[in-house]
Amino acid sequence: MSKLNIYQRINAVMKVVEYVQKDRSVSAPGVTYKAVSHDQVVSVARKALVDNGVMIFPNQVSGEFLQMRDINATPQPIKMGLYSGTYEINFVNVDDGNDRITITVQAHANDNGDKAPGKALSYATKSAMLKVLSLETGENDESREEQRDINLISAAQIDQLFPLLCDESGNYTEKGLKVCKAFKFNNLNEIKSKKFNEILRFAS
Fold first, then answer.
1. Which of 21, 9, 39 is nearest to 133 (CA)?
2. Mean pLDDT across the stretch 162-191?
3. 86 forms bridges with which residues in the sheet?
4. DSSP 8-state symbol, 33
5. Which candidate, 18, 41, 32, 19, places its Cα nearest to that of 122?
6. Which residues contact 125 (CB under 8 A, 6 or more apart)?
7. How much is the pLDDT for 183?
8. Using an 8 Å Cβ cutoff, are 20 and 126 in contact?
9. What is the C-alpha separation between 132 and 127, in angstroms, rounded?
10. How confident is the model at residue 7 (pLDDT cuts 50, 70, 90)?
11. What phi and psi values does residue 43 have, to the nearest 5 degrees?
């Protein structure tokens, strides 16, 4: 391991960690959307980073409040403080501290208390990890894998499922209808190959 440089170590991490699921709902005026949190990214990538000897640490270059919270301001109180920070996020080879990748990230965060600087730091670190590790993000891990599975079951597999799900006339039995609903297909020839064994166990 000690002979690997930081780029090779990052590449090794990327082979293990490919995807992180969005875990947080964010509400803004007129819109609600899903996002991935700092903790979620860390939980997904941490073991692979440790196993491959990569340490991440941030260094703040600059920071300032663009707008201070002031509940006594007139004519309208300012309930949220807006903070802006610039950070160097370092990905370091634990066996050679001089061997590192450093990227600069600017982050903004607002808060109605004193947490805006910490939020900005977390956002910058999360963003750097997502970009350096080329992590894909999404809302539903299962649907993502299903979309990648383009292979359908074979004719022999259809023949195997047919008597378990259909009557002699070719219509779905009560069990067959339940399986269709559970696995979201209308015809047997629409079933993805990765789902075959699971459907077979369910139908048997």
1. 9
2. 88
3. 62, 106
4. E
5. 41
6. 38, 56, 58, 87, 89
7. 84
8. no
9. 9
10. very high
11. -65, -35
Residue 136 identity (one-letter amino acid) = E
Q: What length is written for the chain?
A: 204
Closest listed residue to residue 135, CA positions, set 49, 30, 24, 52: 49
Backbone dihedral angles phi then psi of residue 82, each to the nearest 5 degrees: -115, 120
Query: What are the tokens at 94?
Result: 């634990």
Task: Give the residue from 116, 106, 107 showing the smallest Cα distance to 78.
Answer: 116
pLDDT digits (tens, 9 = 90+) for 13-54: 999 888 888 877 766 556 676 788 899 999 999 999 999 999
The token pair at 130 is 């997502």
201 has pLDDT over 80: yes
Residue position matching structure tokens 């004193």: 114
d(CA 132, CA 91): 9
